[in-house]
């Protein structure tokens, strides 16, 4: 876990969060590989992108479709993923996938099923 925390802390400065001052980095573990994403804000707030969804996009671009775990770090954390990210993570991880929410002092672990008990499925 300390290796993952070191990676997260090393990359959080790459987040683009000039409006909220709330940088976030996410690391997705999928099929034996890891994928990173950071939040990217925009002056038009609805166009902003969450770190978790950017990490999932990197995973999909690499041809992976099943995530086992996502780690989220913010210097202001530990924080849970937003509702939209919970739904996207559920699509690729299912309710048993782990969400590890990191902050400077430690971390908390929950399943996606706990964070989104009634997720949408087709």
TrEMBL record:
GO MF term list: cytidine deaminase activity; identical protein binding; zinc ion binding
Domain CMP/dCMP-type deaminase, residue spans: 1-122
Keywords: Hydrolase, Metal-binding, Zinc
Key word Metal-binding present: yes
First-level EC class: hydrolase
Binding site for Zn(2+): 50, 82, 85
Family membership noted in the UniProt record: Belongs to the cytidine and deoxycytidylate deaminase family.
PANTHER family named among the record's database cross-references: CYTIDINE DEAMINASE
Name of the molecule in the record: Cytidine deaminase
Provenance organism: Thermus tengchongensis
């Amino acid at each position: 876990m300390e290796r993952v925390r070191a990676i997260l802390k090393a990359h959080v400065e790459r987040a683009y969060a000039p409006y909220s001052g709330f940088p976030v980095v996410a690391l997705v573990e999928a099929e034996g590989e890891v994928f990173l994403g950071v939040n990217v804000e925009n002056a038009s707030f609805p166009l902003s992108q969450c770190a978790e969804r950017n990490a999932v996009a990197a995973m999909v671009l690499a041809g992976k479709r099943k995530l086992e775990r996502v780690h989220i770090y913010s210097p202001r954390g530990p924080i849970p993923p937003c509702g939209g990210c919970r739904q996207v993570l559920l699509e690729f991880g299912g309710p048993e996938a782990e969400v590890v929410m990191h902050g400077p002092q430690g971390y908390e672990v929950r399943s996606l099923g706990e964070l989104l008990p009634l997720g949408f499925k087709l």
